[in-house]
């Protein structure tokens, strides 16, 4: 855990995002794209879309974890829209990627930047990495990741997260 977490307000994030978008795309295009993003955010907030966000719920059900985007609150979803939306790692794809590496995992540290609720960390714990580290800036996701790691049966003590961005 980082002793003094980075703190960023939603208003400051919106300002920075708007300024960057306006400079890169011009006022009219930035306005058009922003309206489309707000519309998508509002559509994504409907009960039907919330149910769809459960996504790969089988993994969570099998391991009694909370790694899908269904329980990500509006504030963190909005920050995700401004930076990078939360999406859990698909277990089969993760296993395929690591199998293709052809390396001795004991010689490496696994680092997940933007570790979210920690699913990739949990998946990595099935491999003999020297150490496993997750870095997440959103405090709510980092807290859930830490809870998931504590409750996961096979996660070794060398698995941890750092985070905190508000």
Largest sheet: 3 strands, parallel
Q: Count all strands and give the number.
A: 3
Mean pLDDT across all residues, rounded?
Answer: 79
CATH architecture tag: 3-Layer(aba) Sandwich
Number of domains: 1
The level 1 CATH classification is Alpha Beta
Instruction: Supply the helix-strand structural class.
Output: mainly alpha
Q: What is the spatial order of strands in the main beta sheet? A: 1-2-3
Low-confidence stretches: 1-5
Question: What is the gyration radius calculated from CA atoms?
Answer: 18 Å
What level of helicity do the residues show?
Answer: 40-55%
Helix-strand topology string: HHHHHHEHEHE
- Spatial shape: globular
Could you tell me the CATH topology label. Answer: Rossmann fold
Distance between the termini: 15 Å
Strand content: 5-15%
Number of helices: 8
Short description:
The protein is mainly α and 166 residues long.
What is this structure's SSE topology?
Blueprint: H1 10-25, H2 27-44, H3 47-52, H4 57-63, H5 74-82, H6 91-99, E1 109-113, H7 119-124, E2 131-136, H8 139-151, E3 159-163
Parallel strand pairs: 1-2, 2-3
Helix pairs in contact: 1-2, 1-5
């Amino acid at each position: 855990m980082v002793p003094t977490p980075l703190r960023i307000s939603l208003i400051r994030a919106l300002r920075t995002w708007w300024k960057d978008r306006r400079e890169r795309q011009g006022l009219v295009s930035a306005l058009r794209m922003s309206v489309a993003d707000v519309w998508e955010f509002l559509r994504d907030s409907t009960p039907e879309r919330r149910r769809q966000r459960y996504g790969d719920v089988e993994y969570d059900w099998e391991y009694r974890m909370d790694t899908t985007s269904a329980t990500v609150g509006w504030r963190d979803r909005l920050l995700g829209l401004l930076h990078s939306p939360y999406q859990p790692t698909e277990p089969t794809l993760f296993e395929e990627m690591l199998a293709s590496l052809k390396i001795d995992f004991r010689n490496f540290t696994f680092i997940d930047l933007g570790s979210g609720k920690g699913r990739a960390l949990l998946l990595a714990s099935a491999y003999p990495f020297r150490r496993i580290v997750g870095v997440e800036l959103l405090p709510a996701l980092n807290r859930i990741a830490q809870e998931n790691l504590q409750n996961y049966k096979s996660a070794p003590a060398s698995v941890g997260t750092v985070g905190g961005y508000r």
